[in-house]
Amino acid sequence: MADQNLNGRLYQIVDELVRRGVTLEQARREFERQFIVASLKSNRGNFCRSARSLGVHRNTLRNKVSDLGILVEDYDLPGRRTARRKSGEPVPTET
After folding, report:
1. Is 7-75 assigned to CATH 1.25.40.10?
2. Is residue 36 within 8 Å of residue 61, measured between CB atoms?
């Protein structure tokens, strides 16, 4: 049932894009961009986990992110990531 619903929704989107004159390349690029951004958001910006869930190597994902002009701001939601510390730097503690 879920596949039929997805196919029906996809058919409607594709039909609208065709009527608007969107090229296959434009549609593919935007779909790929949004799919990657959604995966990165879901994985809190973690490229290794996102690449694994997308079925690509992390370097391939990094190249696609660059080619598609995806910025950190597109997938890094405020308050979801912690800043990386340099090796050997002490972890801050609350007092």
Report:
1. no
2. yes
